[in-house]
Amino acid sequence: MISGTGRADRADPEVVKIADAVEPERPACLSADAIIEWDKVIVILRQSGLLSASDSAIIAAYCATKCTFQNAEIAIESANRGIKNAFGLLTLSHQKTPIQNPLIPIRNRALNDMTSYAIQLGLTPAARLRLNAEVSERKENPFDKLKNSD
Q: Band of the pLDDT at 14, cuts 50, 70, 90?
């Protein structure tokens, strides 16, 4: 007789569908770039079965912080003011000494916030694994047949 550690708590659970029939309303305060990102995210969430009307604020926050991150990154790249090989990471103070570009903390905070929102929305690979949002057909365990064939 073959026995193993197959237990109900280890089985692939069937997960309740998270999506509802009503799409979230896009806030009017989003910038043009954030609206473009909103439209992309809505499609992704709809296709993955994760879109819910209650997600409007978190989707808007994700889109706005992604735009903040991108804009800060662009500004950092173009901010190489007289400091060779600084890659925009340094700038000159009023006393003409090199200091950290003040956009670096803004970019870093936006990146952290954007990542946090992406995880909450299931937009990262690890988050999708944890959410297990889509019910897939359970794969047959080849040992189940042996276990039940007393």
A: low
Q: What pLDDT is recorded for position 24?
A: 94
144 domain-assigned: no
Cα(114)–Cα(109) distance, rounded to whole angstroms?
8
DSSP secondary structure of 10-73: GS-PPPPP---SSPPPPPTT--HHHHHHHHHHHHHHHHHT---GGGHHHHHHHHHHHHHHHHHH
What are the tens digits of pLDDT across the range 81-120?
556 666 778 888 889 888 888 999 999 999 999 999 999 9
Does 42 fall in a domain? yes
CA 79 to CA 65: how far, in whole Å?
A: 21
Enclosing domain of residue 67: 28-131
Determine the Cα–Cα distance for residues 127 and 115; give it in Å rounded to an integer.
11
The pTM (predicted TM-score) of the whole model is 0.71
Q: How many domains does the chain have?
A: 1
Confidence of residue 138 (pLDDT cuts 50, 70, 90): low
3-state secondary structure of 121: helix
Q: Which two tokens stand for residue 76?
A: 């950092």
